[in-house]
């Protein structure tokens, strides 16, 4: 349970070499995209297919268990077995598991890194066998943002929508950067891969103060200590607004929901369009903001020049679909 | 208070204290901690103070306090700590103890629903946005097939998750009666 965290950083090239650039991948969607932002699920699927991957999803996918485990509600053994279940589902389709969620990403790594050290592996495998599932601990787990960076040349080749110097602020999210810093693509203290991607696609990256602090999300804090959570989110949004960003880009559905909902809970003037990286890449590849990306699920309308048409249709549609 | 000391076995306590032993009390954790910055000073939350309490062996006091639930698990502290003291892991361990001893009614009330949803459906948040899902061409249901859900429930039973949650339910229900 208690471990020493190495502070070394893997060279970006080493990590980059492992990220898949073609072939089959299993898409692990995660709970938030299923309950709040289906656009994340659909955009991840569609963009990855456009980029030449064979994408598989499964109805058998279960929760990653992160929220339950990190709040003390789930024993490690159950957490491990749940992750084991999901990994073996993935293994039926592919060798690589890709997720659009930082929380799920961290949950998978927590188990994959600790299963041999903490013991109990035999017991977990026994339970998995009992329900007729073959353990598959050798599967590779990646974040979808890493995959997009790997195939950046292809994205540039297929780019349909120009960014024309759109000012973009990137937020990487704690559970990608800080839970397993040695697994981050590039430096965990100063990651740049999302910023590089934005620049390559013709956007302008804006830097803002305290770029790498928490979004105010955690797993349960928006419900448990709403006032503290909102203050953290607003501090971030204030810094981002001060840097005059047009768009905030995040790789995590939880961060997305926190930034997206903050103007409804607190200071209305702090809101700005927030996109998940999959929705952003989908937009660039020319997918329809309404029919393909489901951007109408966002509480803060995504009013950037690239989605003008969508905004015109936005109001009437939201009334019918926002249920 | 004495009751909790018995829950934490000597071995477990030693593990926690040992993990914090390299702490220099330099305070870089508190200076970088988002909730430390924004929590009401009257309720003061500080990872450095938390480490100090562990070093003083005040584990029972910590488990009873609300402090351990104020951490956002952003892992900033452990990354900046000169000795990589794994405070998030320690907090997690303390949360487990506090919860099982019936010391965390507030958090239980917040998370009871989602946890029960997880046991019932295999997902922690209720499925939603059905109309929107249909509109963008996704299957309208994200529910697990019955057969898989059965297997999943068996996993929850065999690994002790179900009984753990049932026990919590009983603990907090009895608490209400008192």
| CATH arch. level architecture of the largest domain in chain B | Orthogonal Bundle
The ordered H/E elements of chain A are: HEHHEHHEHHEHHEHHEHHEHEHH
Globally, the shape of chain B reads globular
Order of SSEs of chain B, N→C? HHHHHHHHHHHH
Radius of gyration of chain B: 20 Å
Q: What is the domain total for the residues of chain A? A: 2
Number of domains of chain B: 2
Percentage of β-strand residues of chain B? under 5%
> Which regions of chain A contain 5 or more consecutive residues with pLDDT less than 50?
1-9
Q: Report, as a whole number of angstroms, the end-to-end distance of chain B.
A: 18 Å
- On the 0 to 100 scale, the average pLDDT of chain A is 90
Broad shape of chain A: globular
Distance separating the two termini of chain A: 42 Å
Residue share in β-strands of chain A = 5-15%
Q: Give me the CATH architecture of the largest domain in chain A, please.
A: 3-Layer(aba) Sandwich
Total helix count of chain A? 16
Write down the CATH class of the largest domain in chain A: Alpha Beta
Q: Can you identify the CATH class of the largest domain in chain B? A: Mainly Alpha
State the major sheet of chain B. Answer: none
Q: How are the strands of the largest sheet of chain A arranged?
A: 2-1-3-4
Residue-averaged pLDDT of chain B, rounded? 89
Defining key terms:
heterodimer; A: 323 residues; alpha/beta; Glutathione S-transferase Yfyf (Class Pi), Chain A, domain 2; Rossmann fold; 2 domains; 8 strands; globular; disordered N terminus; B: 178 residues; mainly alpha; 12 helices
In short:
With 323 residues, chain A is of the alpha/beta class.
Task: Spell out the blueprint of helices and strands.
The complex is a heterodimer of chains A (323) and B (178).
Chain A (H helix, E strand, L loop, with lengths): L11 H7 L4 E5 L3 H5 L2 H13 L2 E4 L9 H5 L5 H16 L4 E4 L2 H17 L2 H10 L9 E4 H7 L1 H7 L8 E4 L3 H4 L15 H8 L3 E2 L15 H4 L1 H17 L4 E4 L2 H13 L8 E3 H8 L23 H14 L2
Parallel strand pairs in A: 1-2, 1-3, 3-4, 5-6, 5-7, 7-8
Helix pairs in contact in A: 3-15, 5-7, 8-11, 13-14
Chain B lengths: L1 H6 L2 H11 L7 H5 L1 H5 L8 H9 L3 H6 L11 H5 L6 H14 L4 H17 L8 H6 L10 H13 L2 H17 L1
Helix pairs in contact in B: 2-5, 9-12
């Amino acid at each position: 349970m208690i471990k020493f965290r190495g502070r070394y950083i893997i060279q970006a090239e080493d990590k980059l070499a492992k990220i898949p650039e073609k072939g089959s991948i299993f898409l692990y969607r995660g709970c938030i995209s299923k309950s709040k932002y289906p656009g994340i699920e659909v955009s991840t699927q569609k963009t990855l297919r456009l980029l030449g991957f064979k994408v598989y999803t499964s109805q058998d996918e279960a929760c990653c268990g992160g929220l339950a485990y990190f709040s003390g509600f789930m024993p490690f053994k159950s957490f491990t077995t749940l992750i084991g279940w999901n990994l073996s589902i993935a293994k039926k389709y592919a060798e690589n598991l890709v997720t659009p969620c930082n929380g799920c990403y961290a949950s998978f790594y927590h188990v994959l890194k600790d299963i041999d050290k903490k013991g109990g592996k035999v017991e977990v495998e026994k339970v998995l066998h009992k329900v007729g599932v073959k353990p598959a601990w050798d599967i590779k787990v990646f974040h979808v943002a890493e995959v997009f960076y790997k195939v950046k040349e292809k994205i540039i080749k297929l780019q349909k929508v120009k960014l024309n110097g759109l000012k973009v602020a990137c937020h990487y999210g704690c559970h990608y950067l800080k839970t397993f810093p040695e697994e981050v693509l590039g430096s965990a203290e100063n990651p740049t891969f999302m910023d590089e991607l934005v620049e390559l696609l013709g956007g302008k990256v804006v830097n803002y103060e305290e770029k790498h602090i928490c979004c105010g999300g955690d797993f349960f804090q928006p419900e448990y200590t709403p006032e503290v959570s909102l203050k953290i989110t607003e501090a971030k949004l204030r810094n981002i607004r001060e840097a005059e960003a047009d768009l905030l880009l995040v790789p995590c559905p939880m961060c997305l929901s926190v930034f997206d909902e903050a103007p409804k809970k607190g200071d209305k003037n702090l809101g700005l369009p927030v996109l998940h990286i999959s929705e952003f890449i989908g937009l660039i590849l020319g997918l329809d903001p309404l029919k393909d990306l489901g951007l109408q699920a966002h509480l803060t309308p995504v009013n950037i020049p690239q989605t003008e048409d969508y905004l015109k249709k936005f109001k009437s549609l939201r009334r019918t679909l926002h249920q | 208070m004495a009751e909790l000391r018995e829950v934490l076995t000597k071995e477990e306590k030693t593990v926690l204290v040992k993990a914090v032993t390299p702490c220099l009390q330099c305070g870089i954790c508190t200076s970088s901690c988002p909730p430390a910055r924004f929590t009401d000073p009257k309720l003061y939350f500080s990872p450095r103070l938390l480490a100090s309490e562990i070093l003083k062996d005040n584990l029972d006091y910590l488990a009873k306090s609300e402090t351990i639930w104020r951490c956002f698990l952003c892992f900033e502290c452990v990354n900046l700590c000169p000795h990589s003291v794994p405070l998030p892991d320690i907090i997690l361990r303390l949360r487990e103890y506090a919860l099982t001893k019936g010391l965390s009614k507030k958090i239980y009330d917040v998370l009871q629903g989602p946890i029960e949803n997880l046991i019932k459906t295999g997902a922690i948040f209720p499925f939603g946005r059905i109309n929107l899902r249909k509109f963008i061409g996704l299957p309208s249901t994200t529910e697990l097939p019955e057969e898989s859900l059965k297997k999943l429930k068996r996993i929850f039973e065999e690994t002790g998750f179900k009984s753990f949650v049932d026990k919590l339910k009983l603990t907090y229900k009895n608490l209400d009666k008192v």
